[in-house]
Each structure stands twice: as structure tokens, then as C-alpha cells.
Amino acid sequence: MTDPTSPAATLRALLAILVKSALIADEARLAGWRREAADLHRRLGGQDLSALKLDGIWTLAVREAEVPDLRPDETQVSLTMPQSCPLSLDELTEPGFDVDGAVDRVRKSASTG
């Protein structure tokens, strides 16, 4: 089991929030997720992420974000997430990380069903 404070777990949580934000249009939830994403991004700062396998973590994050209890709230569009993460590690950890821009990239990278 992964340590919940490890860089891999933090990155997975950040990616899961980006996916949920791309799927769900509830402004109250989005505001909370923006704050959570900003906090997770801060926690990634200064971490050595070079050994992490981004696409594997992305796959786990997508599974985490697409839990059945959120499906009724997925009002954006029916999306199929890509197999590869649409963001690079550099983009996810850069100081000027833009949560809304990242959510938009995730949304645009998905195939509509």
C-alpha cells in the first residue's frame, strides 16, 4: 500500500482532482477541489519526482476519480480519458501551476462518448 504522504500518492491525488473537475460542473465542488489541488501542488514542490511513472499514476488517478458515486454528477459530457497523462511532470510541478488551465487540458484531451 502506498504511503498517503508519498510524492506518488500526492501526485495521484492531484491528478484525480483534475479529472473530477473535468467531469463535474458543480461550482461548489470545483471551488473546494481548486483549493485542494493548490495544496497538493504545494506539497509536490521540491520533491524528486523523476523516478515516478506518470502514465501509471495517471491511470490510477482516473480510476479513483471515476468512482460510481460521482457518476450521477458527471454533467460536463461523457468523457473517456486518454491512456497517457495530458500534462507533463514539469507542468504539474511548475511554480505558476494553473489549476483551471490544467482542468481544461484534461477535459480537452478526453474523447467524448
Report on the structure:
It contains 5 helices and 2 strands, in the order αααβααβ. The chain has 113 residues and is mainly α. The protein has one domain (7-112): Malate Synthase G, Chain: A, Domain 4. Helix 1 (7-23) runs antiparallel to helix 2 (27-44) and helix 1 (7-23) crosses helix 5. The longest helix has 18 residues, at 27-44.
What key phrases describe this protein's structure?
single chain; 113 residues; mainly alpha; Malate Synthase G, Chain: A, Domain 4; two-stranded antiparallel ribbon; 5 helices; 2 strands
Shape: globular
Which structural category do the helix and sheet elements fall into?
Answer: mainly alpha
Fraction of helical residues = 55-70%
Number of helices, counting only DSSP H or I runs of 4 residues or more: 5
Largest sheet data: 2 strands, antiparallel
CATH class: Mainly Alpha
User: In the CATH hierarchy, what is the superfamily?
Assistant: Uncharcterised protein PF01724
**Mean pLDDT level:** 86
Q: What is the topology, as strand order, of the major beta sheet? A: 1-2
The helix-strand sequence is HHHEHHE
- Write down how many β-strands occur, each being a DSSP E stretch of 2 or more residues: 2
Total domain count: 1
The fold-level CATH name is Malate Synthase G, Chain: A, Domain 4
The CATH architecture designation is Up-down Bundle
State the end-to-end distance.
Answer: 33 Å
Q: Can you tell me the residue ranges where pLDDT is under 50 for at least 5 consecutive residues?
A: none
| Rg for CA atoms | 13 Å
Strand content: under 5%
